[in-house]
Structure prediction request, 98 residues.
Amino acid sequence: MKKLILLIAILVSCNPSYSDSIWVKEKNLNDIQARNLLALSKLYGCARYFYPNMLTSEWTDLDWYKYLAIASERIMNVEDKEVLKKELLNLYSPIIPE
Prediction:
């Protein structure tokens, strides 16, 4: 019985139509978008884990994943580094007071 279950599991996982439907086509990023997302992820990590601002009432119910999605949309296609710095400062200055 165990061999039959193992055989069925292997056949199902090797089925090309089943395994292809699991993977979604990836979207390729250009160098500017990758640079912007790297800068955003560094700030997000710092804000999320070192500056939670739990004492302020306005940030206690913050949906961090939604905030990250909105922030990534805003900075994704910023081409100039100075404009990127200003945009990241605008996004994170309420959360990271320093």
User: Anything to note?
Assistant: The helical segments are 2-14, 16-22, 31-50, 64-75, 81-92. The chain has a mean pLDDT of 76. The longest helix spans residues 31-50. The radius of gyration is 21 Å.
